[in-house]
Write a structure and sequence with these properties.
This protein has 7 helices and 5 strands; from the N terminus they run βααβαβαβααβα. It is α/β, with parallel strands linked by helices. The protein has one domain: SGNH hydrolase (Rossmann fold). It has a 5-stranded parallel sheet, with helices on both faces. Helix 3 runs parallel beside helix 4 and helix 4 runs parallel beside helix 6. The chain is globular and about 50 Å long. The protein starts with a strand and ends in a 6-residue tail after the last helix.
């Protein structure tokens, strides 16, 4: 059995859109669950999504536990050996309180990739395959979140290009989620149930195209 770790924020956790802000989509609805169903019994799909998680920053409002880099190492080591690590982070870094450019957010993802490569977390002590997934851009209308994400609309549209550059520099896989899904109109930055289904299917295709040895 191969294993894939899905490391992300609320859109990996399965946070529902703003009309139900405290709810979570079911196991079979959120994209890692869709991925699990498609890949079948030969794959162990591990969900590690946390609402509010950033790439490498403590959150001065929501807490230090939102720092994706702090938790990554123990997370990786607790689940090893891993065949593949998927990283889909960056949306929360768009919040005005972090004051980051798209390039700086991508550099944070690059730091996570470097951390993974420094750990003997793959099969037989090798480095697992890594895929950077650029989150879909925010909607233009961020509703009541517009103040929190001030200026995020344009920066979010720069992330895919910056992430692809980081992926190429680190020789890891890349996928742009914005090619297949859009952020929900309900709140402007979470994924609707249909988008979770589409994204899970698209990521399954990307995984299967890696060319795993028999």
């Amino acid at each position: 059995m191969r294993s894939v770790l899905c490391y992300g924020d609320s859109n990996t956790y399965g946070q529902t859109t703003a009309n139900k802000p405290d709810d979570r989509y079911g196991h079979d609805v959120r994209w890692p669950g869709v991925l699990r169903e498609i890949l079948g019994h030969k794959w162990l799909v591990i969900e590690e999504g946390l609402s509010g998680r950033t790439t490498v920053s403590d959150d001065p409002i929501e807490g230090a536990e939102k720092n994706g880099r702090t938790y990554l190492r123990p997370c990786i080591m607790s689940h090893k050996p891993l065949d593949l690590v998927l990283i889909m982070l960056g949306t929360n870094d768009l919040k005005i309180r972090f004051n980051k450019t798209a390039g700086e957010i991508a550099m944070g993802v690059g730091a996570l990739v470097s951390d993974i490569k420094s750990l003997p977390a793959g099969v037989d002590g090798k480095v697992p395959e890594i895929m950077i997934i650029a989150p879909p851009p925010t909607a233009r209308d961020l509703k009541e979140w517009s103040g929190v994400f001030l200026g995020a609309q344009d920066k979010s549209r720069e992330l895919a290009g910056e992430y692809e550059r980081i992926a190429e520099a680190n020789e890891v896989h890349f996928f742009d989620a914005g090619l297949v899904v859009r952020s929900s109109k309900e709140d402007g930055f979470h994924l609707g149930a249909k988008a979770h289904s589409v994204l899970g299917q698209a990521i399954a295709v990307e995984i299967e195209s890696i060319g795993w040895p028999d």
